[in-house]
Write a structure and sequence with these properties.
Shape: globular
Strand order of the largest sheet: 16-15-14-13-7-12-11-8-17
Bound molecules: nicotinamide-adenine-dinucleotide
Distance between the termini: 25 Å
């Protein structure tokens, strides 16, 4: 996956005074604004997108201290994280770890990491560090994150943080008791295009919001079987992006219903041959956000996609939001957005704005978390939000299995202070 975008208008320039009679989010209760932080961070990080792989990621002067960091899981996505971490002035990658030791050694050599370990206990007993980045199989996250918190480490986890809402909430309580931080991917709410959409909605220009639709899919990974096994599935791997974006834009979900299916029961996986698919590879979810607002997410591992895992070729509106007086469409995927198009009665032809990537990269979350640890600045992405999305996913499975609509228990602070 690669982020690509184009230069464009300042996202904040079109926000107008909200008219009355809308079901827009109320930002007035937000205790503080993180917008300055997000913007400054993303703008300085823009060096990466502009300068390419060898360019600066953050402004050199913004480095009070480096967080001693370890990465566990040296598979596919580590090739996306490690280059960003190596150029982040808030990070010193001291160790890498993988239960396939040759992978840890290879990444240590490729990225100049001094230590590599074959399992988490050896990692914890080895070179000291304070921040663990968990890039293991989806099913391993909960146990790895728990062990790291027990050992007093801050944690960034790829999705999901845990296998259930209850287990994730337990991890978060554990972190808080020890004054540790826990975060989970994805970070679609950190993009300038997300901020543009959130401000457009908050402005009231779209009128009363009624409906939203989001989609993301491809033909499915072929490098590891865990994506198709219990604890995997296309919901926590793919739908998680749209669910994070839509709840971030429209608010927490009150109840969920869904239909899930398996379209391709057998998959060919590298080094394993043919495996049996046991988790959904095709999903349709309906989400009730309250205030009359209903959204729909469709996602799966059976979508013809000529762009594969490179989002830069996707030009459709993968998120569409409709209100009584306006329409918003996100151009490209929410993890690699390219702009936002909108229309209102005054401006019925689609207008494209927010085309500047602003330095946003989907694989940048752990580096932003390290910046938080080093400076005290906060992310828009919160563990409560990640856990709410996890509850939507488990509720969707229950809904599909029973044919019922499932009420949700969790929530998160919303609207986000973009
Ligand atoms: N590959 C991508 O493009 C991508 C993009 C975004 C997010 N993700 C997420 O990243 C995570 C990893 O995906 P991936 O594609 O890199 O998978 P992968 O199979 O390529 O890599 C996972 C690695 O973790 C190691 N591992 C598993 N359990 C471990 C443990 N207990 N201790 C140490 N190492 C362990 C495996 O040996 C493997 O090398 C998943 O949650 C996935 O959803 C992947």
């Amino acid at each position: 996956m690669q982020d690509r975008g184009r230069k464009g208008t300042d996202p904040s320039s079109r926000v107008k005074t909200p008219p009355p009679e809308t079901n827009r989010p109320d930002h007035s209760g937000a205790p503080f604004s993180r917008r300055g932080f997000a913007k400054a961070t993303l703008l300085t990080a823009g060096g990466l997108a502009v300068a390419g792989a060898s360019g600066p990621l953050w402004a050199a002067e913004a480095a009070p201290r480096r967080i001693r960091t370890a990465v566990i899981g040296c598979g596919s996505v580590s090739n996306q994280y490690l280059p960003v971490l190596k150029r982040c002035p808030f990070v010193e990658v001291v160790s890498v770890c993988d239960i396939r030791p040759e992978r840890a050694r290879k990444q240590a050599e490729a990225y100049g990491v001094p230590n590599d370990y074959p399992h988490i206990e050896a990692l914890l007993a080895g070179a000291p560090f304070e921040f663990l980045i968990d890039l293991t199989d989806m099913q391993a996250h909960e146990a790895v994150n728990r062990r790291a918190l027990q050992a007093g480490k801050h944690v960034w986890s790829e999705k999901p943080i845990a296998n259930s809402l209850a287990a994730g909430q337990d991890l978060l309580r554990m972190a808080r008791r020890q004054k540790l931080r826990l975060w989970g991917a994805p970070i679609t709410v950190q993009s300038p295009q997300f901020a543009f959409m959130a401000r457009k909605i908050a402005s009231g220009e779209l009128g009363r919001l009624a409906a939203a639709h989001a989609f993301y899919g491809h033909e499915g990974p072929d490098w590891s079987s865990f994506f198709y096994e219990k604890g995997g599935g296309s919901l926590p791997d793919l739908a998680v992006y749209n669910l994070t974006s839509l709840t971030g834009l429209l608010g927490p979900v009150r109840r969920v219903t869904a239909m899930l299916s398996i379209v391709t029961p057998d998959r060919a996986i590298h080094e394993k041959g043919t495996i049996r698919v046991t988790e959904e590879d095709n999903a349709m979810l309906l989400l009730d956000h309250g205030r009359g607002l209903i959204s729909h997410v469709q996602s799966g591992f059976n979508y013809f996609n000529p762009h594969g895992h490179d989002g830069s070729g996707e030009k459709r509106h993968t998120i569409q939001i409709t209100g009584t007086r306006g329409y918003l469409g996100l151009v490209g995927y929410d993890w690699a957005p390219q702009g936002v198009e909108w229309a209102t009665p005054d401006q019925p032809a689609l207008v494209r704005e927010s085309t500047d990537p602003g330095g946003y990269l989907w694989q940048q979350g752990a580096a932003l978390a390290a910046e938080c640890l080093a400076t005290g600045k906060e992310l828009l992405a919160t563990p409560e939000h990640a856990l709410h999305v996890l509850e939507i996913i488990t509720a969707a499975r229950a809904a599909s299995a029973t044919g019922r609509t499932i009420p949700l228990k969790s929530t998160f602070a919303w609207p986000l202070p973009v």
